[in-house]
Amino acid sequence: MIKNNSYLQNMKKLILLLFPLLILTKTYGQTPMEIHQRAILVDTHNDVLSNELVNKLDIGKRQTTGDFDLVRAKEGGLDAQVFSIWCGPQYGKGTAFKFANREIDSLYALIARYPERITLVRNAAELKKAVKQKKLAAMIGVEGGHMIEDRIDYINSLAKRGMCYLTLTWNNSTSWASSAADETTRRDSLKHVGLTDYGKQIVHHLNDLGVIIDLSHPGEQTFYDVLATTTKPVIASHSCAYTIDPFRRNLKDDQLKALAKNGGVVFVNFYSGFVDSTYAKKESSFLKLHKAELDSLTRVYNDQDLASDKLFVIHKDETDAIRPPLSLLIKHIDYIAKLIGVDHVGIGSDFDGAPSYPLGMDDVTDYPKITEELLKIGYTEKDIDKILGGNFIRVLKANKGK
Fold first, then answer.
1. 45 and 22 in one domain?
2. Is the pTM here over 0.70, yes or no?
């Protein structure tokens, strides 16, 4: 009798777990995974190339560390990845542009090693061709205007190598555009706030080249100056909604509305600190507790962000306990879609560029969970097609002309 009761209880639990999936299958005629795999999934921001260089990884093979490799990307239904080309402000004139090219070289080398699985694409037509060939469409996003070293010819060079977007600043301002970090923490000491005349010249040049302007790191004044200057739709490649989490890099409602009016798209960042307004305090306590270890790792990696990522892996049990729920990430997507329309939101994970993500979003194999959760709260297959990749492809076409 005890055994039978146990069996019945287990069956009830199984039915409760499967019930949402059964409802979704009945409603759409397909499972969430089938809908996910049929859509074109584009992730507009991943920092794996920085980790690949530091840790000397071959991301063509399955890795046990990090968030991305070609094997897991396939399993997660990823069709196109914009690889972030990034270096910190310690790289200045004479070194930043060289470092950017070094990271691009590493992507080119990956493609040369695995030409049957990944290919460089420069426009929407090439992206769709790669998807048909069942290859990962690789694109290049340069994250930080300091890497052009104030030179137009460096923009031209990076565009020729495949740069599809330029993030006008990283956390550090340039001589021609102010960052969100600087506008909020040291605004009074800045030589300029927003775009300078040279910055406006750069915006026009990027428009002429068909390079998308990315506003995920620039400050609010720079954001509005760009929208007043650009002739093409812009993006925020990895940002969230400020109303839910008032972090300086997240976009306020008026910014989101202005972005939609421009025809642009905000691609939602998975980093716990941008998703959850309570996370920063918890993270600060964790880092304070392990400060000596973090300092040691920073000396090893010569970069505090990479050191922080490593520290979180070492103390996984502690850091898992402060991660937000997946539902909060979905809330950002839903909030933006409801505020400005489903045509203006997408996916920009920041995988391999942050130490923590919501529970359930551990690496690129977990993208299907987003599709499943969106279906549960009423998004249609057409909506999901737009969010996963269609919106990016539209902006890409609008900038490239094909």
1. no
2. yes
